[in-house]
Amino acid sequence: MNHTKKTLLLLSILLLGGILAFILFLSNATRSMNYGDMRTVLTTTTATFGSLLGIITAGLMFTHGRFSELASELGEKAPSYLSETLSLEKVQHLGTRLLALRKAFLQLQKETTVAEEKNLYGKIEEGVSSIFVDFVVLLNTKLQQQGLRTPDFMVSEMEPSLYAKYREKRKVIKKEWQVTELIKRMVDAWEGSTSFFAERSETRTSLQSDLRSSVTILKLREKMDTDSKNIATEVSQVLEEVGTEVSKIGKMLHHDRIPQMLSQMNHASTIRGKYFYLALVFIATPLFVNLMILPQLSEGTTQFFQPIISATSSLSVMGILFLLLYIHEILNV
Amino acid sequence: MKKSKEEQIRLLVSTHSFPPLEVVIPILENAGRGEKELSNQLHDTDVFLANGLKEILGLKDKNMRAVAKIFGVLLGSHGQRFEPVELSESRFSLTVSDCPMMHVGKNVSTSVRSKYCDLVCSAGSKAIAETILGQESVCAWDKALIKGAGKCKVVFTLGRKNESH
Q1: Nearest-CA neighbor of B70 among B152, B12, B135?
Q2: Is the confidence at residue A289, as pLDDT, over 70?
Q3: In terms of domains, do A307 and A174 share one?
Q4: Which domain-ending residue is among A256, A279, A303?
Q5: A-contacting residues in B 106-165 (Cβ below 8 Å)
């Protein structure tokens, strides 16, 4: 299920819970209740919220544990990726080829008048820039790991727009496991997602396939117009060189199950974040309100507290629905 | 290390791709020429792919079953959706519910699409007939998909054109 569908499902369940809670609230608020009943309702809902919060906290601890476990496993693997696959000479060579390619596609983009062709070259230029920046970020991260203080190799050759991307990507890498995430993103951008579960509707093409398309177009142009620049061969060479390197890294990633681990981490991270805050809103807040009311509740204050108690007890319906969703999400980690 | 057959097919298909129609058609329409060059390029690519697949899959027979096998792999590798309809000694047909021509920009008229549909399909069918069947055959497609019918029927028949109808 994709992200939009999941969000829609979550929203519709919460909306359904909200409507149920509102209906319950209306029916309870209009009915007069005596002190004994109110005390029972208050104690029961407080206990319910307490249990729900306990379960959610346990789930959160489990998810956090899993997240840390995966992060440390990925963190251990990251240095081997950097040392085995990205030597300084290799990255320098590929970087030079990629920069030349970027320049060529910028030029082609300027020269063409056909919108579709312009778009394709623009997309390639963007992709090539991104891969180039990724290589430089990985190289400098590796050099830093090896003890060089603030290494910024190949940065001086960058244009301001590339440098801005470089700074942004370097800033994101704060922990070792994030290196593997960057490598995976780079491989996906080049090869496209090869996941068995990739949806067929995912139409964004990979940089590799865009470059191949451009080669076929450039060859056709060369046949049609003998005066046109002969860059199809050059593009094919870079495609082959970068493809070989990225494919090696991609194979290693799949062998080490890095994509699955990263996807599990993303899932765990969502549960730690979004779901925990929802738990606080729907469960901890009414629990806190109930705990505040409980000592104040007496024969004299029954009338005053009745609407609030009706509201919080109705919210426990939403809490239970939410708990089911939460358990479903945890089971998928 | 010897590559597996799957790996060989993946490599073959990925290194011999077709130019994207959604980009090529506007270029040629803008230039007002280049159809013959495109047709030759498509034919050469199809011949290469069909020969490569024939070798990888170890197909020696020159019959409709071999055509069906190659055609299926070729369509699938280019993300086309199809359903088999008929396979006999002298006839093979299938319906295609999605093809690259469907993704050509909306500003391209049906007549232009129809012209390129003929160009692409004739190049492909000629290549398959030459490399797999090695004998006279006819391929017909009804272009219903680009006219909005949802499915297009492709039929391969052994024999000369006037014999098949």
Answers
A1: B12
A2: yes
A3: no
A4: A256
A5: none
Q: Where are the domains of chain B?
A: 5-160
| Alpha-carbon gap, residue B99 to A106, rounded angstroms | 30
Which pLDDT value is given to residue A57? 84
**Dist CA B155 CA A95 (whole Å):** 49
Q: What's the total number of domains in chain A?
A: 2
A161 shares its domain with A234: yes
Write out pLDDT tens, residues A11-34: 787 787 778 777 777 776 666 778
Judge contact between B90 and B158, C-beta under 8 A.
yes
Tell me the residue range of the domain where A154 lies.
86-256
Q: Residues 38 to 97 of B: which have CB under 8 A from any A CB?
A: 38, 40-41, 45
Low-confidence residues of chain B: pLDDT under 50:
164-165
Fold of B5-160: Muramoyl-pentapeptide Carboxypeptidase; domain 2 (3.30.1380)
Are A94 and A168 contained in the same domain?
yes
Average pLDDT over residues A34-42: 83
Q: Alpha-carbon dihedral of residues A143, A144, A147, A150, nearest 10 degrees?
A: 110
Residue A175 Cα, gap to closest chain B Cα (Å): 35
Q: Are both A149 and A196 inside the same structural domain?
A: yes
Question: Which residues, listed in sequence order, are joined to residue B137 by a DSSP beta bridge?
Answer: B158
Q: What is the ipTM of this complex?
A: 0.82
- Whether A314 has its CB under 8 Å from any CB of chain B: the answer is no
CA–CA min distance B117, chain A (Å): 18
Which candidate in B16, B27, B49 is best for mutational testing of the A interface (most A CBs within 10 A)? B27
- Structure pTM? 0.77
Least confident range from A26-35, A96-105, A134-143, A149-158: namely A26-35
